[in-house]
């Protein structure tokens, strides 16, 4: 009987390793998009984390150009949620970072990194504040255009449903779902 359970354990481990199953937690998207005082703002469910990164990317554009804006926020004390005004001025605990290095442009040649400073009508954007998962997997980002800003009401956020879709939900439910 012991031999049979040992063999079963080995077979189970072999199957899991061959199927590339990951049994740990999935990556989480901690940010959603809100409009506060008329300005696009990331609502980050920081859940008491020491620091986090919020980034906005232009999704598409001229070949060889990479537009982004990012900030690393270190709250003065553990908090459940933080508002990060997109393209806002640095505040205590904020470090606005340059576009990431190493981005590659299609068509060869090094990319031209451009600091994103505002949103343009009709242009798609990605908001991200996730932690990566196993083997480079990432949580779904918030995909939006300026048209989406008008649909977000007070106390609401635009949050990712999956890698292609977002939905408007209450800010409270978004934070509760992320932080528990």
Index terms:
6-stranded mixed beta sheet; 3-stranded antiparallel beta sheet; alpha+beta
Q: In which range does the helix fraction lie? A: 10-25%
Intertermini distance:
42 Å
Strand content: 25-35%
Order of helices and strands: HEEEEEEEEEHEEH
Secondary structure: number of strands? 11
Judged by helices, strands and strand pairing, the structural class is alpha+beta
User: What average pLDDT do the residues reach?
Assistant: 81
**Could you say which overall geometry the principal axes of the C-alpha atoms support?**
globular
How would you briefly describe this protein structure?
The protein is of the alpha+beta class and 180 residues long. Helices cover 17% and strands 32% of the residues.
Fold blueprint:
Layout: H1 2-18, E1 31-36, E2 39-44, E3 52-58, E4 65-73, E5 82-85, E6 94-97, E7 112-115, E8 125-128, E9 142-144, H2 146-149, E10 156-160, E11 166-170, H3 171-179
Parallel strand pairs: 4-7
Antiparallel strand pairs: 1-2, 2-5, 3-4, 3-8, 4-6, 8-9, 10-11
